[in-house]
């Protein structure tokens, strides 16, 4: 996994490891910028079906673009998600008319780009990121 930036380069307090640590008291906090991102490389192909994300209210993204690819291929857009500016856990649902929908896709790499931050400086704060699916 990789991230676009970390607030004040303080990896210990705000690093990418906090996206998946399960703690409600830690988070990934990006630095300033117009667009932030998280890239996940999976050791083998996965069929992604759902995304769980929990922002800090006031530091969320109005638009999340999901891109993915198989090994050796270029990233292609999978979905655009429109999260709420809320601290609540947000869950995508495939094949439903919903503002937060992920198309089921088989991939080895997933990139989530956070555009249009609700923070004036473009910072994004994520307490939890979960990618659900099936290993192939």
From TrEMBL:
Superkingdom of the source?
Eukaryota
Family annotation (Pfam families): F5_F8_type_C_2 (PF22633)
Q: Indicate where this protein resides in the cell.
A: Nucleus
Instruction: Name the major location.
Output: nucleus
Q: Which gene encodes it?
A: Nr2c2ap
Q: Which residues form the F5/8 type C domain?
A: 1-54
Kindly provide the name given to this protein in its UniProt entry: Nuclear receptor 2C2-associated protein
Similarity annotation: Belongs to the NR2C2AP family.
Per the record, GO CC terms? nucleus
């Amino acid at each position: 996994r990789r991230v676009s930036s970390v607030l004040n380069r303080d990896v210990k307090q705000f690093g990418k490891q906090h996206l998946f640590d399960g703690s409600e008291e830690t988070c990934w906090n990006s630095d300033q910028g117009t667009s932030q991102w998280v890239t996940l490389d999976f050791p083998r192909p996965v069929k992604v079906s759902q995304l769980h994300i929990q922002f800090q209210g006031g530091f969320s993204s109005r638009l999340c673009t999901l891109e993915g690819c198989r090994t050796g291929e270029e990233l292609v857009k999978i979905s655009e998600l429109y999260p709420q500016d809320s601290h609540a856990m947000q869950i995508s649902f495939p094949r439903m008319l919903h503002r937060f929908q992920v198309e089921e896709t088989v991939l080895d790499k997933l990139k989530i780009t956070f555009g249009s931050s609700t923070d004036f400086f473009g910072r994004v704060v994520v307490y939890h990121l979960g990618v659900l699916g099936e290993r192939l």
